[in-house]
Amino acid sequence: MPLNLxxxxxxxxxxxxIKPYKGQDYAKLKQECISKGELFKDPLFPPxxxxxxxxxxxxxxxxxxxxxxPKEICDAPKLFVEGANSGDVTQGSLGxxxxxxxxxxxxxxxxxxxxxxxxxxxxxxxxEKPEEYAGIFHFRFWRYGEWVDIVVDDLLPVRGGxxxxxxxxxxxEFWSALLEKAYAKLxxxxxxxxxxxxxxxxxxxxxxxxxAMSLPDLKVADALEERTxxxxxxxxxxxxxxxxxxSIPAKSSEEMEASLDSGLVVGHAYGITCVKNVHLEGSGLxxxxxxxxxxxxxxxxxxGQCEWKGAFSDGAPEWEKIDKNDxxxxxxxxxxxxxxxxxFEDFCKNFVNIAICRVVNTSIFSIRKTWSEGCADGLWAxxxxxxxxxxxRETFLxxxxxxxxxxxxxxxxxxxxxxxxxRTKTGDDNETIxxxxxxxxxxxxxxxxxxxxxxxxxxxxxxxxxxxFLRTSMKKGRYVIIPCTFKSExxxxxxxxxYTSSENSFRVLEHDQPxxxxxxxxxxxxxxxxxxxxxxxxxxxxxxxTGADPYVIISCEGEKVCSPVRKDTTxxxxxxxxxxFRRNPTNSPLKIQIWNSNMLRDxxxxxxxxxxxxxxxxxxxxxxxxxRGKEGDIQRPGKLIVEITTKRELASI
Length: 653
Known about the structure:
Blueprint lengths: L18 E2 L5 H11 L12 H4 L3 H7 L3 E3 L1 H4 L23 H11 L2 H7 L3 H4 L12 E8 L2 E8 L2 E4 L2 E2 L11 H13 L10 H9 L2 E6 H4 L5 H16 L3 E6 L19 E12 L6 H4 L3 E8 L16 H4 L3 H6 L9 E5 H7 L2 E6 L13 E9 L21 E18 L3 E2 L2 E2 L4 E7 L15 E5 L7 E19 L6 E9 L6 E2 L19 E11 L11 E7 L2 E4 L10 E10 L7 E7 L6 E8 L5 E11 L8 E13 L6
Parallel strand pairs: 1-4
Antiparallel strand pairs: 2-5, 3-4, 5-6, 7-12, 8-9, 8-12, 9-10, 10-11, 13-20, 14-19, 14-20, 14-21, 15-16, 17-18, 17-19, 22-25, 22-29, 23-24, 23-26, 26-27, 28-29
Helix pairs in contact: 5-9
GO molecular function: calcium-dependent cysteine-type endopeptidase activity
EC number: 3.4.22.-
Enzyme class: hydrolase
């Protein structure tokens, strides 16, 4: 009799539906196979040479291959044998150490692989219910903002009775081989996985954002302060369940996967499985190194062999001075499985690149959200949305523009730009991309048209990689991100993600100027646009022992913009700006007030009203301050310095 298996729409981290790859629904397909008494055979990724390689010579090189199901390879196959761990994953005949290293990282965190390998207990072979076995499995990968559920059969390529690609050290464990098959299906063939970017695999496993760093550029090999800073960051990321890996890039094809005298392999990716301060006092190491603790890192070679041969390697003289109990006391034990320890100083001197993938703004590891996320799909398209990088001054602003707010006095901000490309037979079809970060008016809601009026904060590096990452500290205010290709007139799709500690009101700037809504059908159209920048004030009234905590309010036609508070000064540098689209400039002048921020009640310090509506461009004004109400004609202490631009062309600033 057919089994009535429950069929439900799967959900991702945030409760939204997961997309079945090419419409293949795992539960329905499994139910159909069980009903028919058949084992699943995937028509979209058949057990043929075309699923293995697209290069004919590769097929002849690898020899006679047969496709077998796990029960034909071993007795009592299992998806997991005693759970997943980094030692399960061993690289096969493909040069996909980048993917294997990411899998090693994945295996260390149950919360993550439970998402990538869903309901693994019901997917696994069940000797008590053999009728539920249908030769079908499914895995999930994050792809450009959504989770994709990929179905595979369990026919695996075998030569001489052995799996030819990724395999586990336990002969009857198959999660790693089946996961690799699902990833290969996503791109069409196994061969496409030969060579790749570690960051991509980490992101596809987690939906996180990856930061790739060059250790030589950070100068951590010789500079103690920089090295300590990186260690503390990596330790914090490890505590946050971030996935990390390291590599030594090859300078030529001859160097690929060549072993160095140190035992490390060039052109090869290593998973970082632990970052730890080892306390030496009382362990037998204190007298040897003369310090209370040592910064150490543990790595794993996806090959399952070829380990580090330097200090603290297996059998190194440092360990001869320490008995087994002391090793266990500091948490350092060793097996011959490709996993090894290094001092962090040796790590910085021997490795070149590291990748850190942080899972952000999800409830995987914490009930409380740590980050506020802004996320948008975008398009570089002709004729007016693919202007190239900032070097193309005439066309740069003809790119998509996105605004967000930093609401804390200072905040850590993470930005990731990811182009939507795919791995193909000809390699990655990546364009050279990057983004520029610009400080804009506190109330900007429409696109920028002239870069002269804005402050360019920074630009990322431009690379032909799938994603670009920027992590920086930013002051309170409104900012615009311009994602772009390096050259103009290059079309493509992208995903932009922004993370801040507090709500950031992330949004796309679509319109060039105000657009009349149905609620404003009788309202007048704007006839002027005015941009005002309050540069600074001098000689303000001292209203408390430390002077004052001044801020400005810029108002026009019912709209008010407040600057951040400047602490303990009567000569504040404000550098705050606002932009107003004015419908009635004659009767509604521009007004700037200065207030002193207090805990109970703010104190008035002065104002100035600007009545001119003449066109001007960057006109600097130093003006007096006056009282308010009945004291409106009485001059107050201090001067105000502002820059004003007024134009009749609304789409000009």
